[in-house]
Design brief:
Alpha-Beta Plaits, binds L-homoserine, 11 strands, Ribosomal Protein S5, domain 2, alpha+beta, four-stranded antiparallel sheet, 2 domains, 35% helix, single chain
Length: 314
């Protein structure tokens, strides 16, 4: 086998209550990366980047400056490979959308390269290389997109180094709505607005919400999930960066969502519901709420995918 294609899903990071430590993948949108073996020892090249959505932004073709390949460059060096890799990227995730695009490209490229190795690494061993893509893209090696993208499911990163992740069960009735307003928000900027210190009372409330949310998932208790799925720490600091956010959130809750908050660093917004029909109506309502604020938006309705990055036909 000399060539492998991998699909890696879009992910919702933070999940309102777990800043930099919780995330989950969608089942319907992601990036696809094809990696082939070349004869050039330890050389990583990018052949091409295709974009499903024309956002007018082009990613660098220089492998040292592309999130998909920076980790792979470290991998070929650390393993002292006698061959190299040529990479083709298909971006299905809009750039700067808060849908985990840099993690998806990085994870897809590494999982594909790993499948071409004589002695493949474990997912835990690939993890630090995938984080290098996040560090390059945002200046911070936060793990909450990489973990669910690599492992699948609602994933808590208890520790990134050494890597320790916990898969949290999600009740089967849960559907996620993801709405992407046609705006671009740079994660560096979105992290830059956050105060370095937090208020003690807000910390206590957020801890209660995180614990309640996780207990609600284990107990399959939609009421506990709904009362807990509230971000009192990060959302209040970031919502002003997303025109129409407050209106979209109110609308989602008014149409029966269990909770609604910013996806990752935004501008996308996610909601959880306890039925597919509710999710469909929440999605329509949120898109029209953004339209009311003068912002066009796309939406997806998805289960919380149990699958992370996987090999697909080319
Ligand atoms: N946890 C990160 C943040 C996710 O909110 O900045 C970025 O995708």
């Amino acid at each position: 086998m000399k060539k492998v294609t991998v699909f890696a899903p879009a992910t919702v990071a933070n999940v309102a209550v777990g800043f930099d430590l919780l995330g989950f993948p969608l089942d319907c949108v992601g990036d696809t990366v094809t990696v082939e073996v070349t004869k050039k020892a330890r050389v990583v090249e990018i052949l091409k980047i295709d974009y499903d959505l024309d956002g007018g932004v082009e990613l660098p073709l220089d492998p040292a400056n592309n999130t998909a390949t920076v980790g792979m460059m470290a991998l070929v060096k650390d393993l002292a490979l006698v061959h190299g890799f040529r990479v083709s990227i298909k971006k299905g995730i809009p750039i700067g959308s808060g849908m985990g695009g840099s993690a998806a490209s990085s994870v897809a490229a590494l999982v594909a390269a790993n499948a071409l190795l004589e002695r493949p690494l474990t997912k835990n061993e690939l993890f630090p290389y995938a984080l290098m893509g996040e560090k390059l893209a945002t200046g911070s090696a936060h793990p909450d997109n990489v973990s669910p993208c690599l492992f699948g499911g609602l994933t808590l990163t208890r520790s990134a180094a050494p890597v320790e992740t916990v898969s949290i069960p999600v009740p089967s009735f849960i559907y996620c709505v993801l709405v992407h307003p046609h705006l671009r928000l740079d994660t560096r900027e979105s992290r830059g607005v956050l105060a370095p210190q937090i208020d003690l009372k807000a910390h206590v409330r957020q801890s209660a919400n995180l614990a309640g949310f996780i207990a609600g998932c284990y107990r399959e208790d939609p009421k506990l999930i709904a009362s807990s799925l509230k971000d009192v720490l990060i959302e209040p600091q970031r919502e002003r960066l997303i025109p129409g956010f407050a209106r979209a959130q109110d609308t989602a809750l008014g149409h029966g969502a269990l909770g609604c908050s910013i996806s990752g660093s935004g501008p996308s917004v996610f909601a959880w519901t306890d039925a597919r029909a509710t999710a469909e109506s929440v999605a329509l309502a949120m898109v029209s709420a953004f339209a009311g604020a003068g912002v066009k938006a796309d939406s997806w309705v998805s289960k919380i995918s149990a699958q992370g990055a996987r090999i697909v036909p080319p």
